[in-house]
Amino acid sequence: MAKNKHRFSLVAVRISFRSLPLWVQVWVAFILVPVNAAAFLFTHTPTGMAAAVAAVFVVATNVPIMLYEGGMSRLMAIPHLFAWTPLTLFIIFRLLNLTGGPAMGKPELILAATLLLINSISLFFDTLDTVKWCRGEKDVPGHD
């Protein structure tokens, strides 16, 4: 029952985030989120639209998990797998010009390459966190 005291607390979420290793905080706040948020500036392109849809899915699924768990649970990795895997495949197909869409301009190409790199790294860590969570490592950083 002690775990429940953190549920639906924005303070607990903040404490949990700040208890993560500094490199993870920097990764999430200054790399992963901004790169994926940049997609909203490119919704006029196929890559931007696909990435924006994936980002909305991630936010719509991770915010409730974060609030329910009272912090940065490994469970948050699972929606990333469902969003970033198809997005990564789409970007690869787009880069190889296999989607039948319009040719990529330089801005879309830069966005696609950046998303491919960043979200592929994210997928690596998300896969590890998903396996850990499925094996029972359900602790939430910052909880006593």
In short:
This protein is mainly α and 144 residues long.
Tag the structure with descriptive keywords.
144 residues; mainly alpha; 0% strand; elongated
Poorly predicted ranges:
none
How far apart the termini lie comes to: 13 Å
Radius of gyration: 16 Å
Q: Based on the structure, what is the oligomeric state of the protein chains?
A: single chain
Total domain count: 1
N-to-C SSE string, H for helix and E for strand = HHHHH
Which class best fits the helix and strand makeup?
mainly alpha
Percentage of residues assigned to helices: 55-70%
Globular, elongated, flat, extended or rod-shaped: what is the shape? elongated
What is the arithmetic mean of pLDDT?
A: 94
Written description of the protein model:
- The protein is an all-alpha fold.
- It has one domain (2-134).
- The chain is built from 5 helices and no strands.
- The longest helix is centred in the C-terminal third of the chain and has 29 residues, at 106-134.
- The model has no long low-confidence stretch (mean pLDDT 94).
